[in-house]
Amino acid sequence: MKGKRLLLTLLTTTLLLAACGRPAAPPSDEGKLRVVATTTIVGDVVRQIGGEAIALTVLLPPGADPHAFEATPQDMARVAEAQLLFANGAGLEAFLDPLLENAGGQAELVDLSQNVPLRAFREKLAEGTPEAEAPPDPHVWTDPNNVLLWTETIEAALTEADPAHADLYHQNAEHYREALRTLDAWIREEVAQVPPERRKLVTDHLFLGYFADRYGFEQIGAIIPGYTTVSSPSAQELAALEEAIRRYGVPAVFVGTTVNPALAEQVARDTGVKLVPIYTGSLTGPDGDAPTYLDYMHYDVRAIVEALR
Ligand SMILES: [Zn+2]
Question: What is the CA(65)–ligand 1 centre distance, in A?
Fold first, then answer.
């Protein structure tokens, strides 16, 4: 009996010692909720709400194209250690399924598009395709009202995983929702400078659908006529685009950093439109023009209004 108790004491002591001897996480992240976000835009919005209470890793580096990204073994290790994984969803992150399959771990996937009303890609449909089969347009963030819906999903997920910081998450989310409403009002004021007949958007790929729907623009074409950058136009598609640019008298094509510049330059040469740089699927680093989502929207809206008014 005595021997057994001693053994138990020894065991307990050993376990305690083992726990103390574990390699410690970086002191600043100790005990924090471990969170991974896919894109820089998702990461920024999660950071606005999680603040100092979470240890956040963003998978995509600034400037990376979310359509073409491939996860590295380090990314898998980060996901394996995470408690929450925030994703844009709606088919943006093609790398997500293989990543989750290979990473293992317990991370709960939080799909930020789950309560966003998705628009279908009618533009890309072959004739006769039923609307239900259209893939969703994944670029939901180009309407700040959708990001407002994200904040509710993020707040709920963080609060459930880490109820001790519920008040902080709620305050941060309320504060950020106010900033998003201000952004929406500012965009309405800005785009009012563009006459309705000039609200025609041509971009590198069709990424401004939600923006166009919300603020009264029309996407009349794109250099890559689809919702992803991972394809290229046929000669006929390029000719049709140039025809549309001429027909509508479009003065500018908005191009991100991820498109093949040779194609954009060809369209500019053929039609005389101006190429206007814009941010598409990624924020910049801290020293760039668009280190946060709010900066990104300000930059793009200014570029659009300046070119079309
Ligand atoms: Zn895109």
Answer: 8
Which residues neighbour 242 within 8 Å (Cβ) at sequence distance 6 or greater?
267, 270, 271
36 Cα to the center of ligand 1, angstroms: 21
Q: 75 Cβ partners below 8 Å, 6+ apart?
A: 59, 99, 103
Tens place of pLDDT for every residue, the chain, 309 residues? 444 444 444 444 444 444 444 444 455 788 999 999 999 999 999 999 999 999 999 999 999 999 999 999 999 999 999 999 999 999 999 999 999 888 888 899 999 999 999 998 765 444 555 555 678 999 999 999 999 999 999 999 999 999 999 999 999 999 999 999 999 999 999 999 999 999 999 999 999 999 999 999 999 999 987 778 878 888 999 999 999 999 999 999 999 976 678 889 999 999 999 999 999 999 999 999 999 999 999 999 999 999 999
Residues in the chain: 309
171 CA from centroid of ligand 1 (Å): 31
What is the CA(306)–ligand 1 centre distance, in A? 22
Tell me how far the alpha carbon of residue 280 lies from the centroid of ligand 1, in angstroms: 6
Cα-to-centroid distance, 186 and ligand 1 (Å): 24
The pTM score is 0.88
- The 8 Å CB, 24+ separation contacts for 188-197 are 188/215, 190/301, 190/302, 190/305, 191/215, 191/216, 191/217, 191/301, 191/304, 191/305, 193/305, 193/309, 194/304, 194/305, 194/308, 194/309, 195/309
The Å distance, Cα 260 to ligand 1 centre, comes to 14
- Residue 265's CB is within 10 A of a number of other CB atoms, namely 12
How far is ligand 1, taken at its centre, from the CA of residue 34, in Å? Answer: 27
